[in-house]
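Re: your question about HXXEE domain-containing protein

S., sorry for the slow reply, the queue was backed up all week. Below is exactly what I fed in.
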Amino acid sequence: MTNTAKANARQAGPAVTFGLLAAWALHDVEELAMLPGWLRRNTPVLRERFPVVPEAVWRRAGSMEGREFAVAVGLVGAVVATVSAAGHATGGRSAVYQTALNGFGLHGLVHLAQAAAVRGYTPGAATSPVLVVPFTLWARGRLRRAGVLRPTRPRDVALGLGFAAATAVASHAVARRVLGGR
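Result:
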């Protein structure tokens, strides 16, 4: 690491950059523990409550194995570790780190919206209001004070959501492939 990169890394701090990885890991422990069983118990009720959702989505949700989800979470973890390291190496200036940070926070809001839609608990909803959203707001504030985060534009929101969605979809596709599924 060059002296400039070291100075930049100190500017935003490892709590901001590698904190993304730590916050993600804690959040995903909840999802790993809760999602497979929650889907098995709730898919039939959700299928009746939300009939406009395509049948293929319900079949996929009801048939997801814990192993597939665990492999997908591991793959997302590799992505988050990589973007956290990029954020650290650039003092928080990395565009991909900032996009992932935005995506993490926005995905926390999606969890809360899902819980509101089903009028109850959904996996990820417990840690989103106490960890995901607060960490994202704190980290963005630190980056802003360090002078490395520009004001948020609608494009940044779209990129963050797109990054989170693409990472999730790709991780599940790879997990199915690795485990020999369709």
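The longest helix spans residues 14-49. The chain has seven helices and no strands.

Happy to talk it through on Thursday.
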